[in-house]
Specification:
Largest sheet: 6 strands, antiparallel
GO molecular function, one term: isomerase activity
Number of strands: 32
CATH architecture of the largest domain: Alpha-Beta Complex
Structural class: alpha+beta
Pfam family, one: MannoseP_isomer
Radius of gyration: 24 Å
Keywords: Isomerase
Low-confidence stretches: none
InterPro entries: Man6P_isomerase-2_C, Mannose-6P_isomerase_type2, NTP_transferase_dom, Nucleotide-diphossugar_trans, RmlC-like_jellyroll, RmlC_Cupin_sf
Mean pLDDT: 92
Organism: Paenibacillus mucilaginosus 3016
CATH topology of the largest domain: Spore Coat Polysaccharide Biosynthesis Protein SpsA, Chain A
Amino acid sequence: MKLVLLSGGSGKRLWPLSNDSRSKQFLKVLVNPENEMESMVQRVWRQLGAAGLSESAYVATSKAQVEMIQSQLGSAPIIVEPERRDTFPAIALAATYLYSIVGVSLNEVVTILPVDPYVDEAFFNKINELEQLVLSTNADLALMGVTPTYPSEKYGYIVPKNGSEAKVGATDYHVVDRFTEKPDEETAKALIENSALWNCGVFAFKLDYMINHLINKGYPIQYEEMVKQYDKMTKISFDYEIVEKAEKLVVTAYDGYWKDLGTWNTLTEQMDTDQIGKGLISPCSTNTHLVNELDIPVVVLGLDNVVVATSPDGILVTEKNASPKIKDMLKNMEQRPMYEERRWGSYRVLDYKKFAEGQEILTKRMCIQAGKNISYQLHLKRSEVWTIVSGEGEFILDENYRKVKAGDVLVIPVGGRHAIRAITDLEYIEVQRGSELVEEDNIRLYLEWSEIMEQSKPV
């Protein structure tokens, strides 16, 4: 069995910590068994490893999240979407990758799951049962639903067909009758009485089911060709394109712990501390959380049931029950991400200005981890000035190599080919000036430092 973890999200629900490049699954607000901070995706990947599933797992994501995943998961295999086009295109792309690049058998089972469920280890043991369920029932899809603990209006429900209960080995399952999306509380109560399950987005199918669907729709089944045609695929969810049209669906119930940490009120319920970052919460503040990513202290005084979250992207002060509304409030607000993690470290935007004549100036604080490097690259629409703040490194500009240290100032002209590698943890202030300061102006020539050094000569 192969597992594909879908990593997407617009980064609005846990604003201002989340943004378009750092969605909720990457926020390091949980604590691992070694008492270190970890993100939701790191927690899930750790649990997959404990269940013996990580060697068979792939992460499907957009280009914007690749470096964040590399930073947090290291060498986890990644299937990269050329652009975001909803869950059906993402899963179709993953299927063609497994089929034509990895060489997975058409008879092998593929299981899809979100990258960020907050669950215990029993969840992944249950996932293991889906393979046999697909193979033994000849179902188009085998789903895993969560046994509800209350009549929630936030989740979709999988409704089983009456009298369809059966068993494969030790696994009980039902034939699926229908789906109900986010019902009101009274409807949810009635659904639960009829054994309905929360839809947690976990399902499995034989690879040939997906490949045959692509053939019937006229889509390519070779990964390289799918990538070329990806922008022509319809933006549609897997539920609408596949699940609702499938002839035979079965579902098995998971009755262990499961929670969607998609809003500030649900996330803070699982945090082991009420404060992350600089600041103070007064003793008279009850059930209040502070998450501060800025370098200045934040003081919360006399506020109950409140979340205060700060980052370079903004400041949020919200009553906990109101926090789910943040996504709707931000739907018309466009802003470039002000903090990003990359495979080499992280950066934070300190200042951005756009002048009337069209020139832009962007100031960043860059942090490169020891032994890591940025790619050998050039920019056609901007120049840069770097001031080394701390640490030591190696710098190359137009094939000229030199070592750098705190206090050095490096000037990179438009079109200058450059890269830097941290010998020790390295920090520098980068000032960009140009007509268009965008990620698309990063023209990468070489990625690995060994390749970059082959181009260099000492100054």
